[in-house]
From TrEMBL:
It comes from the Bacteria. This is SLOG family protein. It comes from Gracilibacillus marinus. InterPro entries: YspA.
């Protein structure tokens, strides 16, 4: 049983998603929802994220949706204050909406960006506080999630930490399911 997990993954640009109207986001959210429902069945209580744009904010939206039917909570722990200050407006708005609806939120550093150590310490903190991570991405080409993944793999070796991938193949299966379902409608 995993009571506290984190969800992370690639940034929108790494997924070649250039705006929030991209249809692929719905498939990504559906994949996250399917995975979270399995964890909820096994006793999941908290999903905690750092609030990065892309996969983490989409996961937060999924958790906010699931809260209406399940006893699940969302914690948002940005590595520092004003993490969203240089983001595009659409992601700033999404971040602020997630913060408003989160069950708990607190920056890990009560200061603005000071250096890359804040991101590194954020990864360490998330791994210390969680029992598993759901990572949406390609294990062979992890992109920016590589830093988190390297630390998660070390924790996996020493403590049996769970790394649960949502792969490009998983996303393709969801697209095919949708297409098959829609062709029968």
């Amino acid at each position: 049983m995993h009571r506290i997990i984190t969800v992370t993954g690639n940034k929108p640009s790494e997924l070649t998603i250039m705006n929030e109207k991209d249809q692929r986001i719905e498939f990504i959210k559906k994949a996250i929802k399917q995975r979270l429902l399995k964890y909820i069945e096994d006793g999941l209580e908290w999903v905690i994220i750092s609030g990065q744009m892309g996969v983490e904010l989409w996961a937060a939206e999924v958790v906010m949706e699931l809260k209406s039917q399940h006893d699940i909570r969302l914690g948002v722990f940005p590595p520092f204050r004003e993490i969203e200050s240089r983001w595009p407006d659409s992601y700033k708005e999404k971040f602020n909406e997630v913060i408003m609806h989160a069950d708990f939120t607190q920056p890990l550093y009560d200061d603005t960006y000071k250096g890359p150590y804040q991101f590194s310490n954020k990864d360490n903190w998330l791994l210390e506080k969680t029992e598993a991570s759901v990572i949406l991405g390609d294990e062979e080409f992890p992109g920016s999630v590589q830093y988190f993944l390297d630390k998660a793999k070390k924790k996996q070796e020493t403590d049996g930490y769970i790394i649960d991938w949502i792969t490009p193949f998983d996303l393709e299966e969801i697209v095919l399911e949708e297409q098959t379902h829609n062709s029968f409608d």
